[in-house]
Amino acid sequence: MKSLAVFASGGGSNFKAIHHSIISGKILGKIALLLSNNPNCGAVQFAEETGIANAIFNNSRYPEKKNRDDAILEILQDIEPDLIILAGYMKKIPDSVVHHFKSRIINIHPALLPKFGGKGFFGMKVHQAVIEAGEDRSGATVHFVNEEYDKGPIIAQENVIIDPQDSAESLAEKVLKIEHELYPQVIKAYCEDRIIWKNNQPKIEEAIEN
Ligand code: GRF
């Protein structure tokens, strides 16, 4: 069984969807730790309620960035998770962590990368930009994390259709709904060693039905 570490800063709906897929037996994994910068967020509250170990790394606990980054790397090295899952984490992952866990960190982004990604494209700003650009579709992207925001190799994407009457808020709702399906699917594939690399691009292999 794979060991998973999750980073989250917000409501934690993706974290909850992943947890649900684990307890229902869909994903063969165990969440070893939830890491957050925000002790009051929904994700931390859910971890407390469900007995998932959690740890907070923020300015007030670690005023020095170097100490904070070192502490994050240290706790992750103690667990050595098979996969690190970013689920709405609003801070940059330290480069030392990205290097140590190369090709073992994934993120979900609420748009069809490479469009509408990079620094500044987070939360509702992404959906506002998509609506303002007059796109007729958006979606969610799961990708490996490298040192640059939203630039790592794409593993999977799922589309949603944008209707003329959609607002940034209604689009966000549509996208979040598909995130809750797409992210567990990718994590399930990872836990079953079904993410393979071909020509430096990751790809999900279909599960073999018994
Ligand atoms: C999601 O839209 C995700 O794509 C983005 O942050 C949001 C997190 O939502 N990276 P939640 O905290 O999982 O509800």
Order of helices and strands: EHEHEHEHEHEEHEE
Beta-strand content bin: 15-25%
**What is the rounded distance between the termini?**
19 Å
Number of helices: 6
Number of beta-strand segments: 9
Look at the helices and sheets and give the structural class.
alpha/beta
Q: Specify Rg, calculated over alpha carbons.
A: 17 Å
Largest sheet properties: 7 strands, mixed
How is the largest sheet built, in terms of strand order? 3-2-1-4-5-6-7
Question: Are any ligands bound, and if so which?
Answer: 5-O-phosphono-beta-D-ribofuranosylamine
Which spans have pLDDT < 50 for at least 5 consecutive residues? none
Which geometry do the CA atoms define?
A: globular
SSE diagram, text form:
Blueprint: E1 2-7, H1 13-23, E2 29-36, H2 42-50, E3 54-56, H3 65-79, E4 83-86, H4 95-100, E5 105-109, H5 124-132, E6 137-144, E7 154-161, H6 168-191, E8 195-198, E9 201-204
Parallel strand pairs: 1-2, 1-4, 2-3, 4-5
Antiparallel strand pairs: 5-6, 6-7, 8-9
Helix pairs in contact: 1-6, 5-6
The structure holds 5-O-phosphono-beta-D-ribofuranosylamine (GRF).
